[in-house]
Amino acid sequence: MKTFIVLALTVTALFVWQRNSDQPAPAKAPAMRTAPAQTKEVNWPKNSLDQARRVVDQVRTLREQNEQR
């Protein structure tokens, strides 16, 4: 009986210890935002596609300018 009680207390203590250690630490606020202020999280797929299109257009423009020189 004594062994059962010790075993039950040990398992309970391990369970409680593991449960408390799984809680994430509070996140620090970022020092600086990397995304533009007007970008909303809901529109991230559209915004990423728009950014890719802008980069492609910029590269195309630069290549055209280099060919003209």
- DSSP helix fraction: 55-70%
Structural class call reads mainly alpha
Kindly estimate the percentage of residues that lie in beta strands according to DSSP. under 5%
User: What is the count of β-strands?
Assistant: 0
Output the number of helix runs: 2
Shape: rod-shaped
Task: Give the structure's gist in a few sentences.
The protein has 69 residues and is mainly alpha-helical. The protein contains two helices and no strands.
Description:
- With 69 residues, the chain is mainly α.
- It has a domain at 41-69.
- It is built from two helices and no strands.
- The protein has helices at residues 2-21, 44-68.
- The chain starts with a helix and ends with a helix.
- The model has no long low-confidence stretch (mean pLDDT 80).
Q: What secondary-structure arrangement, pairings included, does this model have?
A:
Blueprint: H1 2-21, H2 44-68
Keywords:
69 residues, mainly alpha, 0% strand, rod-shaped
